[in-house]
Amino acid sequence: TGAEVSPMTTPAMFLQDQLPKLAEHLKKQAHLTGAVTSESVPCDSGGKMDVVFNDKNGNEELDAGDSADITISNCQYDNFKMNGKMSFTMNSGSANSNLTASNINLLATIQDLKVEFNDIVSVGNGSFTMSITPVNSTTLTVDMQSPSLTNQVTQAGKTKVFQYKDYNVNATANATTSSWSVKGTVSVPTL
User: What pTM did the predictor assign?
Assistant: First the structure.
């Protein structure tokens, strides 16, 4: 069902929502060029993210070449509870408090990222690129592409493994509406 495969887009949506917050935390830290710093960042509705930042050029901006390793612990996001690891490297652009201000492209990796929703537990592994492009001052286009992701879903005591190949999700959204398109191959186990 749709509920079983939809958690795979959760890491990209979560990362998109967290980029402004992570950029603000990076700005507040005193550090030197190329310094690696760490900070515990609370999730909005409970839980936390332990973040290790690498500000390659030392400009206190989350921009090209910078990276972060994130350990997510009991983080409440929308109706999901998340645990696991995520890392990303900024390929281009700059994240700030207003994502509609610049184009962003990054490479993200998830490792045993567990997303819980009601009685569904999804554990994802793999990597994806994400591009965030402003359409205007209130609307963004977000494109997530992955050559390969694995999603292990457990519901009612039954576990199924979904394989995503050449998977692409494109969304355009503002405060009131959104549109989505999905392309790629999903290997669905016998239901």
Answer: 0.83
